[in-house]
């Protein structure tokens, strides 16, 4: 009976037995850990201010170090602001660039030592091969030739002696660039340097050390431990070493005798700084390769050649170009191999993800196509053939395929055939017969996508042919994004407004002058105004009796009385066809070449916000600015008597940006004169051609400047029905008519107006 009762109790407790065992084990371990912690705490705290000895077998603990002289650079410091109340307040002058204020330096400066004999040969070859890969490169020579090659910045010291050239070069680099760069790379014009490898080298070196890195050579008859860097293979100097070396350059010039400039510099650095040249530093190797006579770069396959940062000596320009071609091929092969390795790693890792192999995108490593969340985000495809494009920039349904688009399509078709032949050869060989269908679209997440339907002729190994249609997909991925350097501009430049006026513009002049006075004269903005009165020949003959612009001149006089320091000049022109270029020619001759023009219209409402953007977006000898103003719709169609003006919350709503208008422009007079000179040489004496062109066309076709055309919310124009001059060219007249039609109202407003009209007619 007792055994039965015990079995019943155990049967009842069996479900809770794991829980009880777990609780017991957990409590035991926690008590044991608490006793160990308590014992260790008691051993540590023997007495106030004294540390217990370390446990047996344990390593001794390092005492806490106080911040010393070597640690202040790594600890943040708060500098309190204190202003002496007894001294007058002075305005703080901020630096032009924030990196100057923060003490940032550029990475690498390159100096190329050349001579008068090799300036137009080897130095030009260096400039064409590697100069554009370096952020800053200067050429240093003794005597300057009569003509400096285009695109090269040359510094001539006036003496061909090698030691003097090295001495003057080091002084020049320290004086002009010592505070702007972290690294200085010095090479000769008979040296080929792999620019990308040199830039990668300096990114892996610490700037806190004195670095003298290059191909280490022994001095002839000198100390066995001392080394200098061979100048033919280039060498790298750190900024800290250059700063320490500069005070000793004069002593080195007077005390050290040497024939070779690289030996002289190496001896100077060793004697006064105690630093010798090294070929390896901080785990980085400076690999070089010495070329033998009659070397064939295409046949050099040794590892030392392929890993070389610098190759010397290069005897002629052709050899320099061949070296550049060979090293570019080596770098390209490495890049393709690296891409294949990365793609293999992506495939292997993607197989371990929850999505499995289905998660691998095509092409491997490129972002997946954009997935729209609504019908408004769908990216449309553009249809094309080998001759035509069916999505044209001007909105027409069909246009001829030309220019960059034609080259793009041809390159894509050739690439598709190469990929097919690479995949199926030697079993099949494909040739193109015809492009049946072509589709392309730009996906901002990955690049340009193509889908081609090709009619191909396939040839087997036995010579049998077969015609088939095949669809292929290609992607031109987005490459490395680069920031285009732009010259520095300020908002302090004076803007010269130019306003051409005809008889049809008289009703709107008063509003223009009022806005100009309120937004520029009252705010003392740095802007001036010049009026251009365009007289018809009939009105010009009667100007003595009736001046059609007398009212405008009276308004200008009132403004000059109200603002005593302001003068608003005007220029009178007689013409039947007011060509924009002919009018601008007259204004250009009456202003200095550095004048910043803003070519306005009588409907333009000038304001400070836009004038500042005009100053910032217009760069002399670099960029011109053609804003796209916002045109308000016809209030009679938009509001239909309900309201007469939009509220502040409806800003830029009831209107559109008029892309057909090119009358407003910001440009410098010097840029216009340069482009106008090229136009005059092209058209000779055919002045009638000017009637079919605008200032925009002059800059587009006869200047190499950037044409920046963007929507401008600061330029808002009230609705007005423009009078289109039929004497202008057909294109300009058609553009004016389209501007008027599209400026009436939006499609929804026009539909409502037609609906109401039909309702009224039906009743």
UniProtKB/TrEMBL annotation:
The keyword Lipid metabolism does not apply. Residues 49-77 are annotated as: Disordered. Its EC number is 2.4.1.-. GO terms for cellular component: Golgi cisterna membrane. Pfam families: CHGN. Residues 1-18 form the signal peptide. It is an enzyme of class 2 (transferase). GO terms for molecular function: glucuronosyl-N-acetylgalactosaminyl-proteoglycan 4-beta-N-acetylgalactosaminyltransferase activity; N-acetylgalactosaminyl-proteoglycan 3-beta-glucuronosyltransferase activity. It comes from the Eukaryota. Keywords: Coiled coil, Glycoprotein, Golgi apparatus, Membrane, Signal, Signal-anchor, Transferase, Transmembrane, Transmembrane helix. Residues 325-352 form a coiled coil. Transmembrane segments: none annotated. InterPro entries: Chond_GalNAc, CS_glycosyltransferase. It is a single-pass type II membrane protein. It is found in: Golgi apparatus, Golgi stack membrane. Belongs to the chondroitin N-acetylgalactosaminyltransferase family. This is Hexosyltransferase. It comes from Campylorhamphus procurvoides.
């Amino acid at each position: 009976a007792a055994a039965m009762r015990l079995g019943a109790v155990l049967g009842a407790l069996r479900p809770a037995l794991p829980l009880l065992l777990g609780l017991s084990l957990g409590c035991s371990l926690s008590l044991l850990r608490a006793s160990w912690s308590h014992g260790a705490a008691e051993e540590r705290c023997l007495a106030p201010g004294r540390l217990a000895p370390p446990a047996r077998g344990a390593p001794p603990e390092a005492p806490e170090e106080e911040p010393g002289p070597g640690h202040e650079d790594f600890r943040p410091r708060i500098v309190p602001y204190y202003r002496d109340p007894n001294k007058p307040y002075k305005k703080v002058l901020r630096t032009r660039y924030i990196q100057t204020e923060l003490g940032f330096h550029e990475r690498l400066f390159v100096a190329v030592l050349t001579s008068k004999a090799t300036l137009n040969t080897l130095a030009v070859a260096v400039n064409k091969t590697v100069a554009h890969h370096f952020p800053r490169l200067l050429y240093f020579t003794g005597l300057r030739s009569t003509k400096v090659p285009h695109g090269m910045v040359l510094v001539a010291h006036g003496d061909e002696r090698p030691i003097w050239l090295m001495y003057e070069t080091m002084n020049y680099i320290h004086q002009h660039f010592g505070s702007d760069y972290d690294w200085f790379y010095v090479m000769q014009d008979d040296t080929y340097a792999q620019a990308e490898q040199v830039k990668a080298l300096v990114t892996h070196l610490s700037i806190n050390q004195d670095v003298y890195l290059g191909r280490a050579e022994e001095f002839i008859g000198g100390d066995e431990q001392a080394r200098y860097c061979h100048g033919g293979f280039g060498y790298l100097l750190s900024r800290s070493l250059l700063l320490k070396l500069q005070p000793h350059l004069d002593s080195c010039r007077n005390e050290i005798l040497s024939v070779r400039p690289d030996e002289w510099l190496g001896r100077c650095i060793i004697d006064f700084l105690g630093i010798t040249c090294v070929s390896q530093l901080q785990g980085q190797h400076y690999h070089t390769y010495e070329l033998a006579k009659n070397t064939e770069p295409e046949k050099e396959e040794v590892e030392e050649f392929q890993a070389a940062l610098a190759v010397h000596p290069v005897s002629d320009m052709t050899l320099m170009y061949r070296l550049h071609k060979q090293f570019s091929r080596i770098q390209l092969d490495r890049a393709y191999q690296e891409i294949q390795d990365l793609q293999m790693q992506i495939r292997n890792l993607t197989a371990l993800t929850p999505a499995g192999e289905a998660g691998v995108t095509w092409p491997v490593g490129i972002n997946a196509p954009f997935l729209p969340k609504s019908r408004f985000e769908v990216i449309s495809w553009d249809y094309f053939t080998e001759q035509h494009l069916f999505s044209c920039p001007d909105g027409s349904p069909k246009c001829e395929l030309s220019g960059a688009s034609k080259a793009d399509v041809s390159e894509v078709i050739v690439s598709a055939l190469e990929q097919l032949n690479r995949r199926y050869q030697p079993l099949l060989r494909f040739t193109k017969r015809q492009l049946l269908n072509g589709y392309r679209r730009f996906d901002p997440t990955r690049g340009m996508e193509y889908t081609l339907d090709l009619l191909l002729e396939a040839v087997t190994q036995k010579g049998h042919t077969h015609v088939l249609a095949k669809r292929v997909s290609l992607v031109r991925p987005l490459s490395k994004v680069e920031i285009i350097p732009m010259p520095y501009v300020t908002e302090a430049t004076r803007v010269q407004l130019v306003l051409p006026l005809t008889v049809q513009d008289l009703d709107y002049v008063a509003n223009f002058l009022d806005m100009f006075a309120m937004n520029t004269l009252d705010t003392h903005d740095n802007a001036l105004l010049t009026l251009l009165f365009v007289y018809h020949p009939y009105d010009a003959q009667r100007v003595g009796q009736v001046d059609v612009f007398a009212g405008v001149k009276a308004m200008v006089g009132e403004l000059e009385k109200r603002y005593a320091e302001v003068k608003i000049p005007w220029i009178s022109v007689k013409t039947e066809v007011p060509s924009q270029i002919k009018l601008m020619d007259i204004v250009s001759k009456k202003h200095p070449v550095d004048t910043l023009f803003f070519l306005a219209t009588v409907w333009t409402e000038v304001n400070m916000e836009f004038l500042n953007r005009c100053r910032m977006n217009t760069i002399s000898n670099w960029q011109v600015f053609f804003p796209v103003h916002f045109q308000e719709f016809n209030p009679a169609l938009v509001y239909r008597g309900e309201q007469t003006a939009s509220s502040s919350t409806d800003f830029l709503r009831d209107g559109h940006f008029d892309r057909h208008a090119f009358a407003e422009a910001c440009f410098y007079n010097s840029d216009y004169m340069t482009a106008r000179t090229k136009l005059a040489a092209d058209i000779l004496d055919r002045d009638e051609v000017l009637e079919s062109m605008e200032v925009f066309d002059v800059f587009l076709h006869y200047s190499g400047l950037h044409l920046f055309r963007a929507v401008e919310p600061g330029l808002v124009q009230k609705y007005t029905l423009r009078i289109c001059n039929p004497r202008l060219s057909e294109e300009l007249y058609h553009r004016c008519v389209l501007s008027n039609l599209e400026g009436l109202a939006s499609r929804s407003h026009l539909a409502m107006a037609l609906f109401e009209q039909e309702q009224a007619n039906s009743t």
